[in-house]
Specification:
By secondary structure, the chain is an alpha/beta fold. It folds into two domains: about 100 residues, no CATH class; about 200 residues, 2-Layer Sandwich (Nucleotidyltransferase, domain 5). About 50% of the residues lie in helices and about 10% in strands. Strands 1, 2, 3, 4, 5, 6 and 7 form a seven-stranded mixed beta sheet that branches. A hairpin with a 4-residue loop joins β2 and β3. The longest helix is centred in the last third of the chain and has 25 residues. The chain is globular.
Amino acid sequence: MITYEKLYKKTNSFRSFTGITAPEFDKLFAFVEKEYPKAEAERLGRRKRINAIGQGRKFSLELIDRLLMLLMYYRLYCSFTFMGFLFNLDQSSVWRDIKYIEPLVERCIPLPKKLYEKAKKITTMEDFQKYYPELKAFLDATEQQIPRPKNKRRRKSHYSGKKKKHTAKTQLMVNQNGLILHKTGYERGRKHDYDIFKKKHPKIPKNVELTTDLGYLGIEKDFPKIKSRIPRKKPKGKPRAKEDKKFNKKLSRERIVVEHVIGKTKKFGIMGGIFRNRLSRYDDASSIVYGLVNFRAMMNQGFDLNEFVG
């Protein structure tokens, strides 16, 4: 049976199994432990109860092991049966524990929506530089394969011609330091990146430069108030100018940060392989993964994470 005490002694295994380091886990658990009584009171008080709060079925695992199980599930994306074998639970208990602790984890990590709301309320130049260093932001979309839908209409709408698979698509905005400042809800794989942007684009400060790829061609015309930069397209039937090559090369070096962030999210198995859960859970699962990526980055950058708890 895996427990926190056993896994903590193996540093490399801890990071491989959970996606975060042991000190980062301890920091996260401190927030989770602090918010747990309040979160449990809210959960148990949502509906009318026959018995008093505190009665009823108990959790088999301690809170710290339930958090460990959640992170291992997101990182390794094993079946509930296998996770139950590792933690000495039946698969229904694994699902129950994960389902109940997910909202608690969301309260304790810097989700993109929390950063986005915080960035909109910036009042000082110092805070502005934290969220938009060098006054730059980078935009891109990422796709993840989903099981082939049974419904014919859904098969058509979720089929991505680019990936040649049925996918769910999410659009991210990242800053220079790799923080995810905004994410959209998932869209059908058939939908073009620019169509998503036109309907769900984030509000960006006027003096912040938004860098995209050629998938967002037309942004300068349709959104003149946004200070944007996109690669220069090769003229039809003509060679690309040297100035355009230099410009595109420099742009690629800058916007590689968003590709690196997407790569970090896909190291979590739940975002990297085929998404086997119901699509109704996709946005919650992706938010937690993106929040964990932000959590690690903000710890390294010296942010006060207490302001994102709750």
